Amino acid sequence: MTTPQTSADIIDLGPDLCLRGTRMRFERNAEIFGEEEPAEYIYRVVSGAVRTIRFSPDGRRQILAFHMPGDVFGVEIGDAHSCTAEAVSACDVVLVRRSLLQKAANEDVRAARRWLEMTGQNLLSAQDHTLILGHKGAGERVASFLLRFAERTAGGQHIDLPMSRADIADHLCLTIETVSRTLSELERQCAIALPTSRHVVMRSRSALMQLQAAA
Fold first, then answer.
1. ∠ CA 130-72-141 to the nearest 5 degrees?
2. Positive or negative torsion for Cα 62, 64, 71, 105
3. Residue 192, SS3?
4. How far apart are CA 97 and CA 120, in angstroms?
5. Nearest to 19, CA basis, from 119, 129, 101
């Protein structure tokens, strides 16, 4: 495996919290950290995309979240990582030592508040995803995914998906065939257009929002 390229950088974790870290480049599908490894760093995506995953005892993959430029990930309550992080595409990530963040939090209440906010944001995101999986069918799940992705990336009417349909399927607990069939059905309903498999045109957000709200 090729060693990731590194350089010094600053990680901006929000208002009043900028710490010096190391920028590293990871190629597509490269592991950034593994489940149960020591959680020594906090990570921020600079470019590209990252997925956090866990594996079931029988080896099935569950993608917990996708992290896009600006997102912070790898924030843990305990001393070890609770999941694995991989590069979806070639990406640049800045790492900052967790000990530096802990030191900043001990010395500045604003830094401590920001750390608490990051932990809370991760928890809320996980809860939202659990709600989608627990109460929505395939159409509702895919519509919710597209709307949330569009909001996060500020892509407007046109969005480019860095992840494969296999990734989307493993994130939404669906099969690849179901994801493809659902996207085709959304296109047939004129809710979206699919010029290519990864380029989506949001033709009717209202239709997607109605589907997303369906019980």
1. 25
2. negative
3. strand
4. 20
5. 101
For residue 56 the two structure tokens come to 């079931």
Residue 173 structure tokens: 């607990």
Element (H, E) at 45: strand 41-47
Reduced to 3 states (helix: H, G, I; strand: E, B; else coil), residue 196 is: coil
Give the tens place of pLDDT for each residue, 56-102. 888 889 999 999 998 889 988 889 999 999 999 999 999 988 888 77
Whether 117 and 178 share a structural domain = no
Q: Name the domain boundary from 111, 133, 155.
A: 133
Question: How is residue 200 written in tokens?
Answer: 């989506």
Q: Identify whether residues 114 and 170 lie together within a single domain.
A: no
User: Rounded to an integer, what distance in angstroms lies between the CA atom of residue 147 and that of residue 164?
Assistant: 17
Q: Work out the angle at residue 102's Cα, subtended by the Cα atoms of residues 99 and 107, and round it to the nearest 5 degrees.
A: 125
State the Cα–Cα distance between residues 199 and 165, nearest whole angstrom.
12
CATH no. for residue 14? 2.60.120.10
Q: Which of 99, 91, 94, 93 minimizes the C-alpha distance to 39?
A: 99
AA identity, residue 132:
I
